[in-house]
Amino acid sequence: MQVFNDCKSPDICVTTARLRIALSMPSAATAIGDLSDHPQVRSTLKGQSAAGSNQSDGGTDESSEYAVYRDSSDIVIGAIWLCEGRISYFIAPHHWGCGLGGEALSGFCKSSPVRTWKLDAVVMRSNIASRRILEGAGFQFCGLIGGPANLLQYCRSP
Q: pLDDT of 95-141, one tens digit each?
């Protein structure tokens, strides 16, 4: 089992039935910043930002940021961050309820080399949808972090 202990993520590109996930480029980073500024997204990212480069808006340094694109287009609908064994993600609110969050996270976690890494994620107790997405991607509840946000930690071993 390999633990990913670096914020310098490899160049991973994943294609699923409805999505494409690739290392973020400057134009995608701008779109991700705009999407993550949405109030509903900000509230879901609370406490979920990737370890090691935690920022108040949930973002991380560009080297660990992956853009989630709808189909084969250049339309960014979300992001996945990976740093020091912690994974974070979001899908834009107008794409919620379509299964795209689960498709993105599952597809990313099954990709090579990510499938060989031990990962964890943090989610607010009240974010039931995100908890289900994590469970669908093979993560299991592994502890209560506590604090004012009632954060839960989920873990995944290959």
A: 999 999 999 999 999 998 888 899 999 998 889 999 999 999 999 99
In terms of Cα–Cα distance, which of 28, 140, 133 is closest to 90? 133
Which helix or strand (DSSP H or E) is residue 106 part of? helix 100-110
Q: Distance between CA 67 and CA 65 in Å, rounded? A: 7
pTM check: above 0.85: no
Rounded CA separation 109/44 (Å): 20
Say how far apart CA 9 and CA 53 lie, in whole Å: 13
Among 104, 76, 108, which residue's Cα sits nearest to residue 4? 108
The residues, ordered by sequence, that sit 6+ positions from 98 with a Cβ below 8 Å of its Cβ are none
Among 90, 91, 102, smallest CA distance to 136 is for 102
- Counted residue by residue, the chain has a size of 158
Domain boundary assignment for the chain = 2-114
Class of domain 2-114: alpha beta
The Cα–Cα gap between 22 and 15 comes to: 9
